[in-house]
Amino acid sequence: MSKNVNRREFIKTSAMGTGGVLAASSMFTWVPSFLEDSVTPLLESHAERTPTVCEVCFWNCAGWVYKDRDGNIQKIIGNEDDPNSNGRLCPRGTAGVGIYNDPDRLTKPLMRVGEPGKQEFKEVEWDEALNFITEKMNKIKAEHGAEAMALMHHGTAGPHFKHLFKSFGSKSEAKPASSQCLITRESGFINTYGAGLASPEPTDVKNTKCLVLIGNHIGENMHNGYVQEVSHAVNRGASIITVDPRFSTIASKSKFWLPIRPSTDMALLLSWMHVIINEELYDKKYVEQYVYGFDELKAHVAGYTPEWAYTKTDIKPGDIRKTAREMAAASPSVIIHPGRHTAWYGDDTQRTRSIAILNALLGSYGKKGGYYFPEKAKLPAYPHPEYPHPHWTAGDLAKKVGYKGAIAGITNVIREASLPGAKEKFGHEYKGWFVVATNLIQSMPQKDKTIEALQNLDLVVVVDTMPMEITGYADVILPEATYLERYDVARVAQNRIPNIALRMPAAEPKGDSKPGWWITRELGLRLGLDKYYQWEKYEDVLDWQFKQVGSSLEEMKKIGVKQFDKKSKLYLDDGEDYFFNTNTGKIELYSTDLEAMGYDPMPKYTEHEQPEDGYYRLIYGRAPMHTFGRTINSPNMSDLMEENAIWVNPKVAKINDIKSGQEIWLENQDGIKSTFSAKVRVTERIRHDSIYIVHGFGHTNKKLTRAYGKGIADSELITKIKVDPITGGTGMRSNFVTLLTENPHKKDIV
Amino acid sequence: MRYAMAMDTSLCVGCADCVVACQTENNVPEGYCRDWIVENVDGTYPLLDLEIRSERCNHCEDTPCVRTCPTGASHVIEGGIVKVTHEECIGCGACIESCPYDARYFHPDGYVDKCTFCDHRVAAGDTTACVSVCPTHALTFGDLHDSESEISKLLATRKYKVLAEEAGTKPQLYFLT
């Protein structure tokens, strides 16, 4: 069976869709260069260029923005000195100019005139918007304390707002990127190695002999440097073992693909431990020197045989043994990859701990081809007086409701503490939110709860470049300049080589949009926080910082990225003494911290719910040309993929009598029906008990003219969450859907 | 000189970076593209194969598009690169019909457009835009007449195929398998 994507159809469809949009938009006077006569493009050596750091995803690659003969942005390419990108951007970075050119951008501050949730706003000047916010913040501070303000953020604008909040007296900040994504992974590693992994993950894929991926669809998630190293590994013939119910792109390039029954990963991980310990395949010297709790673990996994795991996972015992031996043969140059989005089933800290434990057994942590020790450049913060000390924070509230292992602010705890009656439950409550560059309506599950919280607040400020759904619930919307139009905090990312990177404007902000640093400084001054803003322009901050490390803004404008000598070692020497930051000073297979907090000191298998007849597990993931929901409306990226499809196994299609290309709706176990339909894609690449869609589609805001109504939003169908008891991470893979061939909203319209 | 491209299907993840890079480099209008991604799935779950290809004009040695062009707008330049002179193109579409690879499209400005192997970059000693961005290094461009070129070495050591060989156009896009 073979499926050819018909390019002509794809092209024609999107051409018709977008042509109308451009004609209808009068927001900008910008004329796309292709409407003019096509001319020979300017060679890079002749073009003006400015350094940038990409903001289309959190990988934050450094690049160069090139202009054409008329001074318009022509293209963005990678900076060769940047270890995150190695001079090559991913499709989203290459298409980044669409973020700047999007005709639907927010270009004027807006203030609510109607009901929350209704898109009735009036355009105002910055002064009016900022004065309104200042007044409300002062009132909240006077009545409830500065602590009652919470910040939800994502991306590079976050630090500007964190500084404002800390100066104001609140340390309640959280990002969906933590509790909805990687908090459980970080916790799993902290409770094993005494240190988290952070970003980019210090996995030495470039040198590995064996890479084990558990539900990690690298290549479809386009984490640039990581993709490049995986490609390098494939080219070298490294063996890749992929565990996924879906035949992902990377599964197709793997030596072993284990098509696991969803939610049973823990059984596989425990049986791998069983085989590695029982067949004595573990790194004995490493285990003896660095590891605590081996005997306890050995006894703990004695019953987790491959035969037992087969009954849970559908993976044959022989394949479990074969893959365990394959990874052991590569030890210590083996990576059982931690993944990023690990909030799946509610026992996620424990699952990622299993991954951490397997790496320890195979001696890969701190070894070439395993996990390296990354280094970050030290860029001093611009001097400011000590921040005030808040009486309570979101972290305190998380611990109060039992998430003793919460290592970061939790968005859902902030949401809980903003609902009516929160004060009785927590002793405190939030009265105002800033939501910066994160569309909480899509990025957090249980949309109804988010909306309830938003409507209960005295102040909601949304800062964004686009009219995302969240803006509909704001009292004030502040239009942020895109990354191509602003100075920003310098990128200081960990890597093999310590480095810093500069983002500077390549163009003037469109309309009345403003950079985050300007917005926060203006608010800071109005709130009387002058002493925290002892600078006029962000260039001054950057220049001061760069001069502390022997560079300057002037130099950084020319080079974009500056590398520094690495001071610490990349790997452990053979037998080198090393103190891990745990209670025992060793890698804890048996976690003394988890035990002290009352959690299982070693991971156990938990049975998770399976779908009933007629229902399928909703699996969601990424496409290489989109970052969550935020790029769906971008001209260049929607051109590549304008809607998601529902992947359905041919057997399921037959039972449900549906065909490829047919528009269907989804309904979940709680009776929630998708707002829009999406096209079926009948494919052998998905298991019979699951369906798959790419996350981020199904936008409901009509102001997103390209994205509106295109595809289905997985987030609206994720109403059941399984909370990780240790960190509060929100497991989102326990939702089941049934397929509807008739429009379930028809009667609503009549 | 004989320019050609090798595309390593074992590395490509179908991210479409090549598509966007070409669009921004060559001012390709929104909704159109000179290169594209094709995905082929074979087998039944769980015994499956997936091949992903980045495709574009094959810059054939035997060029039906040039032969059928009534105005001479379609032509071959040094190194075997097939080009269209926009000013001479009347948009009749004969070349589009004759191309076995569906590599040409009607530009909204009224002419036929296609991949140029970024000849403006190649003339300046650089490589094509798609090759220069590919995060997986799946694309290699070069001169087949130079036995020391990377592409010559790849084709000497790797298994490869061409598409629609039966059309007899001697295509110059080599898919490493």
Verbal overview:
The complex is a heterodimer of chains A (750) and B (177). Helices cover 32% and strands 14% of the residues of chain A. Chain A is α/β, with parallel strands linked by helices and 750 residues long. Among the domains of chain A are: 190 residues, Rossmann fold; 170 residues, Dimethylsulfoxide Reductase, domain 2, CATH 3.40.228.10; 134 residues, Barwin-like endoglucanases (Beta Barrel). In chain A, the strands form seven sheets. In chain A, strands 5-4-15-14-13-6-7 form a seven-stranded mixed beta sheet. In chain A, strands 20-22-21-26-19-23 form a six-stranded mixed beta sheet. In chain A, strands 10-9-8-12 form a four-stranded parallel beta sheet. In chain A, strand 6, helix 5 and strand 7 form a beta-alpha-beta unit. In chain A, helix 4 crosses helix 19, helix 8 crosses helix 12 and helix 11 packs across helix 12. In chain B, 21% of the residues lie in helices and 27% in strands. Chain B contains six helices and ten strands, in the order E-H-E-E-H-E-E-H-E-E-H-H-E-H-E-E. In chain B, the strands form four sheets. Chain B has a four-stranded mixed beta sheet with strand order 8-1-10-9, with helices on one face. Chains A and B meet through helix 1, strand 3, helix 7 and helix 23 of A and helix 1, strand 2 and strand 3 of B.
